[in-house]
Structures are given as structure tokens and as C-alpha cells.
Design goal:
Layout: H1 7-13, H2 15-52, H3 56-59, E1 61-67, H4 78-90, H5 94-99, E2 105-110, E3 114-115, E4 122-129, E5 136-141, E6 151-157, H6 158-164, E7 171-174, E8 177-187, H7 193-197, E9 205-207, E10 216-223, H8 225-230, E11 235-241, H9 253-268, E12 275-277, H10 280-323, H11 325-333, H12 338-364, H13 373-397, H14 406-430, H15 449-454, H16 457-485, H17 490-500, H18 506-541, E13 545-548, H19 555-562, E14 567-580, E15 587-594, H20 596-602, E16 617-619, E17 629-631, E18 637-639, E19 641-644, E20 657-662, E21 670-675, H21 677-680, E22 689-692, H22 693-701, H23 704-734, H24 736-748, H25 753-786, H26 809-839
Parallel strand pairs: 4-10, 6-8, 15-20, 16-19
Antiparallel strand pairs: 1-11, 1-12, 2-4, 2-11, 3-4, 5-8, 6-10, 7-8, 9-10, 13-21, 13-22, 14-15, 14-21, 16-20, 17-18
């Protein structure tokens, strides 16, 4: 009696294929589960970094009310101000209330500085701050007491007393007020957040109006709260709600942003005319845009990984199904139903795929980060897809229903092409990650509705290229075959004739081309990001080392640094602000005085692009129409424009004009240095600030979202490259038995082992090599085709890796090496397979 093969029997006979399938499923489950966890682990850190790196005064929500003199409404005592703070906090929406720091801070001050004793350029702002007594230490005198009528007592910052010529016991005249100075104070702990929210209490404000020759000096003094509130002055009241950095994460950032707008609407419905001022909404909006782009980019590569992993696994399943085809036909011949043959083959694959997927998911658990929907469901979906492919293959191999007709295939291919074109067009016009700011993780609403369609755009583009290769490849091979047919050699004719009839080429092409394309795209994107980040670091610094000191740098210090061991060159410069005396009221401008010729020599070989050296001044385009104009810094000078300049490295002109004066300045406040930072650091004078390219680069690349994206791109590219090589190996192995039979016939006609290897190369390699080359071309073209701007990850460099950005050389070479490696594996595998087939 002939026993029908069972599930364990199939696996026992074909252990090698089963082990290969298990390895593929394990690797795919590991990557698909670990990659989202790795990215998600950095998202909360990025949110905390975005909020924590901004000044507390920017992220706080400031409720403000300006009271005019003789205003009949309240706010005449500090108790009324405290009661209003409670009222405003009661209006906080839920998400905003949950992240608000419970510590309360509110203050009020004169809405504008008041001239002191009618002396020009000396002003005082009177202010009261809740809890100020806990944060100040009186170095002389004591706190201000209760005044009466138009008499007010104040305490002045100790650092301002000397500069403003104010002493304890002085009586000052501020308009209709008589102000007595009772004490001088300093911060108890300068690092406390209180002083970041009330910085004007720690220094004298210098302010210069346009065309003025001298600065206005403004000191902020602490006054008794009830006395100040009761004075008939314009008073600005401010209540601060400060978000706790550690309470904001990727999960609630969108809700906090929405509640910030809702809080403003609720305040607008109050009887008192208050306004909400904050930078938290802008910070969170920028973070959420980067968050959505990060998630969308990871979704691109997860989609590609899913396609490639499933395709490679399908190749392995088909290889297994081909090996067990005889067993399945025997089962059918002995009366087994199609359902039983499908269950037998599917069960055998399930015994391999399910434990491998579970093991991959378990191994991914060691990767830090919260599990997302993709991490939880991806391995299970992969195992289910593998089993489904096995059942379908068993149905076909055991004599069941055949695949769909040609018309259905053509319609499907046209649909893929249409979707690819539409997604690329939308990506170029509206970008990726801008459609929705969901709050979920990868695959759980983190993308907007439009992004769910746009994210797989590169995958669709790669599949469309694969379909083109499937349709155009045979035609190209046929042209080469016709040329070979006219030659006398038999080996090219036999090999190319076999290549024209290679069966089942669709799945290897549809797997290999997206793998190579997306791996090349990932390599180019990651490498291009590195180059853009390096460029941004140089543009921020302007030289290997940049030393700045507002008070100026003495000539002897310059000489010491220039002759220090480890310092190759130093270029002195002066950078400051002034007013270009053009038009009515002048134009604010940033002036850079530097020897451009020496500067060019200093940064030779760096990625910096400097304006060409010349004999005249360079100005921004908004000043280029002026024949000449005067500036008051660094000395009274008449500037005659000799050219235009758009920007200077390390100089932030903002909305003002830019002026570059030729030649070394007489008064130096900036040094541009090439050399070792450790050789410069000990020679710096007090108050000097040193920045380096290495430090700026570390700041850019150390951002959590940037580091996560770069790492994810490299992991995805490596996984795609590995599966590309596996797909080639499986595709060659799948046809080995058929090739051995063909070579056996040719061997009887005198075919040598070397000729057998060449015949096999010419049979198997053309389509695989064409696929690898097409995949490389598609991957290198993707940055320009889809035009995603990654400037947010490159220090804010606009256009980084967008459609107009140049293809980075080194990553392009690495991607080319990947395609060449795939082609080399295909050629070598086919050659040695042919020799072995001949020997068999």
C-alpha cells in the first residue's frame, strides 16, 4: 500500500528549502517589527527636545491684558491678579491641562519704559512678579515696601546699578511718579527656569533706534505689587502657563496643538479683553510636520520591504512547491482532493513560517521602543501571506485552476502604472507627510489620508519600472538573439535561445527590481543627508573654528592664536549690525568686514561657497540700486557697492540687508580659524564664544528624528540588499533542475563544462542583469522624480535632497556597487550552476 505523504514527510525530505524559507521569514519579521519600534522610540525624545530646546518664554502660553489709566475694570490688587490666574487655568482644555506645569507664575509691568529724571537714553520699567522674593537675594538694602499715591519703592538688579549709576536710597523721577530705590538684588540660582521667564530682571537692555548714535539703556525694577497695580499707569498684566517638557510626546503633541488654538478661542469669549501669546503652537506644528514626514518616509521603506520580503518568500515557497510537486501529484492520483493537497502544502509551510515569524517578532522585542501596529501585525501578516502563497502554489502545481488570463494581467499592469504616475505627480506637487498630522504610530493613523496613498509612491514607481522591464526585456533579448543567430558560434545562440523562453520570470523581476531600486534610494538618501548636514555645519560656522567676542578681540590674543601649535591659519573679521542710511529712516543691515582673499584660502577644500574677492564692497540685492550710502559701524564709512552678495557663512542677516566690506577690519570681534580646537580653547579671552564644524555637525545629526531616520534608512537599505541577493539565488536555484536536463542533452553532443557554464549565463543572466541595472537607474532617479525636501533633517538647508539637488557621488557609487554585486552574483551563480549541471 502506498502511503500518502504528510506535512512532516514533505519537510523531512526537503529540509534545505524549508531552512531557507524559515530564514527568509525570520529576517523579514525581524525587520518589519523592529524598524517601526526603533523609529517610534525616538519620537517622544524628539518632542521633548523640540520643546526643551526653545526658551521657556517662547513655549509658555502668556495670557495678556493691557489696562489703561482710570480703567474701571478690576486688576487693582495682586489678589485680583491671582484670582484671574485661577480663572484662566480653568479654561484650559484637557490635553493642555495635562501637560501644564502646576507651578504658577504671573506678573504685571508698565506697558512701556519711562524716562528717568528726564535724562536722555535712561529708562526704567516697573514690574511685579509672583514669587520673586523666593528667587532673589538682596546684596544691598532690602525689598520694596508699600508706597502711597504717586510714591513707589523699587529694587534694582545689582548688575544694572553701576551701568545705570543707580544707588540704594536714590530717589528718581519717572513722569508723575516718585521712585525710591530700596535695594539691589541678584538671582539666588541663575539656572532656575524663573530667570528664563523673567530675563529682563538680570541685565540692562540696550536699544538703538534707527539713525541714532547712542543706545537707550532700559532697566527693569521690582516694585511692590499693590502699589504698582493701584497706580494710574498703562499696565500690562501677564499670566503664564508653562508646559512641562517631559509631559509632551509624539502621542499627544497634535492634541496639545489643537487645544492651544481652542484655549485662544475660549479666552476670546471672555468679558475681559485678553490675548494669548505663545510660540508653542509654532514649535509643535514644525515638530508634527517633521514627525509626519519621518513616519511617511519610514512607511515608504516598510512598504518596499513588505513587497520585497513577500516576493522573495514567494520565490522560496514556489521553489518548495516545485520540489514537492511529485508528492502532490501522487496525492491527487491516489484520490486526495484539491483541498487536502492545498492543506498539506500550506500546513508544511505553516510549520516553518509561523515559528519563524514569531521568533523574528520576539527578537525585535529587544529593540527599544513601544510596539506599533505594524510591529504587532506585520509578522503575522507575513506568515499568513506565505501560507496563502503556498496554498495557491499547491492548487496550481497539483492540477487545479490556472492563473488569470492575459486581459486581467494587462488591466492590472495599467492600474499599477497609473497609480505610480499619479503618486509621483502628487509627491512632486504637495510633498510627503503634509497631508495629515495624525497622532498614531506607524500604521495607526500617523499619516493623513492622502499620505496613506502617497507613501507607497516610490514602491509603485519601482513596480512600474519592473513591469516595463518585463515587457521590454524579452524584446531586447530577442534583438541580441537575432544578432547571435547570424554568427557561427553555437554557445551564444543556445544561451540566448534559452533566455527567450525563460519561464516564470515575472516574480523574480517584480521582487529584484524594487529591492535594488529602494535599496539604492535609501543609500542615496542617507548619504545625501550626510553631505547636506556637513554642508549645513560649515555654513553655520563659516570655518573649522569660529571665535566671537562682543567686546572685541585684542591684537595680542590674535597673535597668540595665530602662532599656536596646531593652528594652520587665522583670518580676522568684524561682524555687527548697523543702519544703512538709505531711504526714509534707513535700512537695518548686518556688516561683515573681512579679507575675502584670505578667507578663500582658509576654507579651500571645504563645501563653502564664498563670494569672489574684489576691490569693493558687496551688498545684498535690496541695496544694490543705491549709488552709495553711509554706515556707522564698524566706523563711519561711505559704502559704494561693487557687487552683490546673497549670504555669508556663519552670519544670520535675518530680514535686514547684508554688507561685506573688503579688507581686514581695524577692530576685530570674530576669528575664522583652521586648526585644532583644543589648541585654540586655552587662549580664548573671557566672554569669547567658540563654535566648530564638528560641534555644529553633532548638533544637527544628534537630533532624535534625524538620527532615527538615518539609521532606519541604512537598516532598510541593508535588508533590501540582502533580500535582493536572496531573490537572485532562489531564482537561479529554481531553474537548476530544468537546466540540468537541457545540459544533459547537450552534453551528449559534445558540450564542454566551460561551454555549459557560458550557456547558462546567457540563459539566466540577461534578464536579471537588466533588472539590476533598471533598479539602480530607478533608485538613483527617485530623489529627482519625487522631489521630497529633507531640509528639516539637514540643519534647515533648503532644497536638501529635493528635486534640484545634485546626486551625491559616494552614495551613488555605493548604490552602483550594490547593483553590480547583484549582477555579479547572478553571473557567477549561473556559470557555476551550469558547470555543475553539466557534470551531473
Amino acid at each position: 500500500m502506498i502511503r500518502l505523504p504528510g506535512v512532516h514527510g514533505l519537510l523531512g525530505v526537503h529540509k534545505g528549502v524549508a531552512a531557507l524559507l524559515a530564514a527568509l521569514v525570520f529576517g523579514a519579521a525581524l525587520v518589519v517589527s523592529a524598524l517601526p519600534r526603533m523609529v517610534e522610540s525616538s519620537l517622544d525624545a524628539a518632542a521633548r527636545s523640540a520643546v526643551g530646546s526653545a526658551p521657556p518664554g517662547t513655549t509658555s502660553l502668556a495670557v495678556q491684558f493691557t489696562r489703561r489709566p482710570f480703567d474701571p475694570r478690576g486688576m487693582r490688587t495682586t489678589k485680583q491678579v491671582a484670582k484671574a490666574d485661577t480663572a484662566w487655568r480653568a479654561l484650559l482644555p484637557t490635553a493642555l491641562r495635562e501637560v501644564a506645569d502646576p507651578g504658577r507664575l504671573y506678573d504685571f509691568a508698565t506697558s512701556s519704559p519711562i524716562l528717568i529724571d528726564d535724562r536722555a537714553h535712561r529708562y526704567m520699567t516697573l514690574k511685579w512678579v509672583s514669587g520673586a522674593g523666593r528667587h532673589v537675594r538682596y546684596v544691598k538694602g532690602g525689598p520694596p515696601g508699600r508706597g502711597s499715591g504717586t510714591r513707589v519703592e523699587v529694587a534694582v538688579p545689582a548688575v544694572a546699578a553701576t551701568e545705570m549709576s543707580i544707588r540704594t536710597g536714590d530717589t528718581l523721577r519717572l513722569g508723575d511718579l516718585t521712585v525710591k530705590v530700596t535695594g539691589l538684588f541678584e538671582p539666588v540660582r541663575p539656572a532656575d527656569r524663573f530667570w528664563a521667564l523673567e530675563p529682563e530682571l538680570t541685565y540692562v537692555i540696550h536699544h538703538r533706534v534707527p539713525l541714532a548714535m547712542d543706545d537707550d539703556l532700559i532697566v527693569t525694577a521690582l516694585a511692590d505689587g499693590d502699589s504698582l497695580a493701584g497706580a494710574e499707569l498703562p499696565i500690562l498684566f501677564r499670566w503664564l502657563v508653562t508646559p512641562a517638557q517631559e509631559r509632551i510626546g509624539a502621542g499627544n503633541a497634535a492634541a496639545v496643538l489643537a487645544d492651544t488654538a481652542e484655549f485662544g478661542r475660549r479666552l476670546g469669549r471672555q468679558d475681559l479683553e485678553v490675548t494669548l501669546s505663545t510660540g508653542l503652537d509654532r514649535i509643535l506644528a514644525e515638530y508634527l510636520q517633521r514627525l509626519a514626514l519621518t513616519r511617511a518616509l519610514i512607511t515608504v521603506f516598510l512598504s518596499g520591504l513588505a513587497v520585497v520580503c513577500l516576493g522573495t518568500t514567494a520565490l522560496a515557497v514556489l521553489l518548495f512547491a516545485g520540489r514537492v510537486r511529485g508528492d502532490l501529484l501522487l496525492m491527487r492520483a491516489r484520490g486526495a482532493s484539491l483541498a487536502r493537497t492545498m492543506l498539506t502544502c500550506g500546513g508544511a509551510v505553516a510549520l516553518v513560517a509561523v515559528p519563524a515569524a514569531a521568533a523574528g517578532q520576539a527578537a525585535a522585542g529587544f529593540v527599544p521602543g513601544a510596539p506599533t501596529a505594524v510591529a504587532r501585525l506585520g509578522p503575522a501578516a507575513l506568515a499568513a501571506g506565505t501560507i496563502a502563497i503556498a496554498c495557491a502554489a499547491a492548487l496550481v502545481r497539483s492540477g487545479g485552476r490556472r492563473s488569470g488570463n492575459a486581459l486581467r494581467r494587462i488591466v492590472l499592469e495599467l492600474l499599477v502604472l497609473a497609480l505610480a504616475v499619479a503618486s509621483v505627480h502628487l509627491l512632486r506637487t504637495r510633498g510627503l507627510g503634509t497631508g495629515g498630522l495624525g497622532t498614531g504610530g506607524l500604521g495607526t493613523g500617523g499619516l493623513g489620508t492622502g499620505d496613506a496613498f502617497l507613501a507607497p509612491g516610490p514602491v509603485l514607481l519601482a513596480l512600474a519600472a519592473a513591469l516595463v522591464v518585463l515587457r521590454a526585456g524579452p524584446a531586447l533579448i530577442h534583438l541580441v538573439f537575432r544578432a547571435a543567430a547570424r554568427r557561427s558560434g553555437a554557445v551564444p545562440f543556445l544561451g540566448l535561445a534559452a533566455a527567450r523562453a525563460v519561464p516564470s520570470a515575472a516574480l523574480p523581476v517584480l521582487t529584484l527590481l524594487p529591492a535594488v531600486a529602494l535599496a539604492a534610494y535609501g543609500m542615496v538618501t542617507a548619504g545625501g543627508l550626510e553631505e547636506a548636514q556637513r554642508q549645513a555645519a560649515w555654513e553655520r560656522t563659516g570655518a573649522e573654528i569660529r571665535v566671537e567676542r562682543a567686546e572685541g578681540i585684542a591684537p595680542e590674543t590674535l597673535e597668540q592664536i595665530a602662532h599656536a601649535p596646531g593652528v594652520r591659519a587665522v583670518v580676522p573679521a568684524a561682524v555687527g549690525t548697523t543702519v544703512a542710511e538709505v531711504g526714509f529712516g534707513g535700512r537695518p543691515a548686518t556688516v561683515v568686514a573681512v579679507d575675502l582673499g584670505a578667507y578663500h584660502r582658509l576654507v579651500a577644500g571645504s563645501p563653502l561657497r564664498l563670494p569672489p574677492p574684489g576691490s569693493g564692497a558687496l551688498v545684498s540685492r535690496d541695496l544694490s540700486a543705491a549709488g552709495s550710502f553711509d554706515v556707522g559701524w564698524p566706523a563711519r564709512t561711505t559704502v559704494t557697492p561693487a557687487g552683490t552678495v546673497d549670504a555669508m557663512p556663519g552670519v544670520a542677516a535675518g530680514d535686514g540687508a547684508l554688507i561685506v566690506l573688503p579688507g581686514a577690519p581695524a577692530q576685530v570681534n570674530t576669528l575664522l580659524i583652521a586648526g585644532d580646537p583644543e589648541a585654540v580653547r586655552p587662549l580664548l579671552p573671557s566672554g569669547a564664544n567658540m563654535t566648530t564644524v564638528a560641534g555644529a555637525l553633532a548638533e544637527i545629526t544628534g537630533a532624535p528624528l534625524t538620527a532615527a531616520l538615518t539609521a532606519a534608512l541604512r537598516v532598510a537599505a541593508a535588508a533590501l540588499a540582502a533580500y535582493a541577493l536572496a531573490a537572485v539565488a532562489i531564482a537561479l536555484t529554481g531553474g537548476a533542475a530544468r537546466r540540468a536536463e537541457d545540459l544533459g542533452l547537450l552534453r551528449a553532443l559534445g558540450l564542454t563544462r566551460r561551454q555549459a557554464g557560458l550557456v547558462t549565463v546567457l540563459e539566466a543572466a540577461p534578464l536579471l542583469v537588466l533588472t539590476a541595472v533598471a533598479g539602480l537607474a530607478a533608485g538613483l532617479a527617485m530623489p529627482a522624480l519625487i522631489g521630497i525636501d529633507l531640509s528639516a533633517y539637514a540643519g534647515g538647508r533648503q532644497g536638501a535632497l529635493s528635486g534640484g539637488a545634485l546626486l551625491p557621488a559616494l552614495p551613488g557609487v555605493v548604490a552602483g556597487a550594490l547593483a553590480a554585486g547583484v549582477a555579479a552574483v547572478a553571473l557567477a551563480g549561473a556559470y557555476w550552476g551550469g558547470r555543475r549541471g553539466h557534470a551531473g
